[in-house]
């Protein structure tokens, strides 16, 4: 889409069913931006980082590998 009208740009990206919408300069690319198609052309999204993240859950595990009890840490029955 080539335009200087922000309303047309907004209408364009809201109505067009595409993973990438180009406005005014189709030869510039941003490698940090998400990339993927829609419907059957979405393979690059499903097989990429976003597809993997859809199946992941964040979990924090705090594991103390030192088995010695410390009296200052366990005052309720430690040494």
TrEMBL record:
Gene3D superfamilies: Aldehyde Dehydrogenase, Chain A, domain 2. SUPFAM superfamilies: ALDH-like. Signal peptide: none annotated. Residues 1-61 form the Aldehyde dehydrogenase domain. GO terms for molecular function: oxidoreductase activity, acting on the aldehyde or oxo group of donors, NAD or NADP as acceptor. PANTHER family: ALDEHYDE DEHYDROGENASE (PTHR42804), ALDEHYDE DEHYDROGENASE-RELATED (PTHR42804:SF1). Belongs to the aldehyde dehydrogenase family. This is Aldehyde dehydrogenase domain-containing protein. The lineage of its organism: Bacteria, Bacillati, Chloroflexota, Chloroflexia, Chloroflexales.
């Amino acid at each position: 889409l080539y335009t200087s009208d922000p309303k047309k740009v907004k209408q364009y990206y809201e109505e067009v069913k595409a993973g990438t919408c180009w406005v005014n300069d189709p030869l510039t690319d941003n490698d940090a931006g998400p990339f993927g198609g829609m419907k059957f052309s979405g393979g690059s999204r499903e097989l990429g980082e976003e597809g993997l993240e859809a199946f992941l859950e964040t979990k924090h595990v705090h594991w103390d590998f030192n088995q010695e009890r410390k009296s200052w840490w366990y005052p309720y029955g430690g040494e």
